Amino acid sequence: MEQSVAFRIGQFECRVVYDGVVIVPDMVTPRQFDPRDPTTGLPMDVNCLFVRTGRHEVLVDTGCGDWPGFSGGRLIGNLAAVGVKAADIDTVIITHAHGDHIGGNVDAHGKPAFPNARYVMHRQEWDYWTAKLAEPVSDRDMNAIARKNLPPIKDRLVLLDKDTEIVPGVKAVLSPGHTPGGLMLMVSSQGRTLWCIGDLIHHEAELDRFDLYAIFDVARNEAVAERKRRLPELADSGVPVFAAHLKFPGLARFARQGGRLVLQPVTLPLG
């Protein structure tokens, strides 16, 4: 399997980088989930996005890191394989602070894994997770991953309070529900656009049932409302999207077909 896929958005050089696989409760069948038995769960790819704008080297999310029990943590090695060093990254954007999106924030010594980068996330996301850091945890708990991967980046963290262009051509848009401060990103160059939708959906089955993955949603009703609003808008726009958990490389378009929404493949390069 390829470990990364390159494409363009206008003048931006982009690359989806594979981090590995997470096993989550199977909400499609569904079956009783035992986190110690991967055969009871649903495997999902973990994809991260790298964008070279010409002025900035931007990474969207940091994958699983060494989160126990998952076969993630391949991000830095897969970046290095195509000539991108961790020290090259100047901006790390965190769409939201679930463990498979922040697990690679720090290295084995607890230091920021991207030593020359500023980390960017929404203030509501930071406030929600840091308020939970004192709660009891297990090693697979989301709070444990936050405890390990959020405090070490505090001194280089930029917190957003509104929809903001983080670097020229990369705009953050608040998309709450899945988590309180979840972000979508609009990547635009030379009239071309890609929407990075974070965890707006995890699996194409959610196009028929917007509430299917409510188990992961911090605010279920708000998350469902966000899917109902955003997904038809994306389908009508025809703009390609990047989703962290769609099958690698996580690039597709949403489209209307017979009264329902469907995924359509995209042809690379996009721009």
End-to-end separation: 24 Å
Indicate the radius of gyration in whole angstroms: 17 Å
H/E element order: EEEEHEHEHHEEEEEHEEE
Low-confidence stretches: none
How many E-type strands? 14
How can the largest sheet be summarized? 7 strands, mixed
Strand order of the largest sheet: 1-2-3-4-5-6-7
Shape: globular
Q: Strand share of the residues?
A: 25-35%
CATH class: Alpha Beta
When the domains are counted, the total is: 1
Number of helices: 5
Describe this structure in words.
By secondary structure, this protein is an alpha/beta fold. It has a single domain, classed as 4-Layer Sandwich (Metallo-beta-lactamase, Chain A), CATH 3.60.15.10. The strands form two sheets. It has a seven-stranded mixed sheet with strand order 1-2-3-4-5-6-7. The two termini are 24 Å apart.
Quick take:
With about 270 residues, the protein is α/β, with parallel strands linked by helices. The chain contains 5 helices and 14 strands.
Helix and strand topology:
Layout: E1 4-9, E2 12-25, E3 41-52, E4 57-60, H1 75-80, E5 91-93, H2 99-102, E6 118-122, H3 123-130, H4 142-149, E7 157-160, E8 164-167, E9 170-174, E10 183-189, E11 192-196, H5 220-237, E12 241-242, E13 251-257, E14 260-264
Parallel strand pairs: 4-5, 5-6, 6-7, 11-12
Antiparallel strand pairs: 1-2, 2-3, 3-4, 8-9, 9-10, 10-11, 12-13, 13-14
Relevant terms:
31% strand; 271 residues; alpha/beta; 16% helix; Metallo-beta-lactamase, Chain A; 7-stranded mixed beta sheet
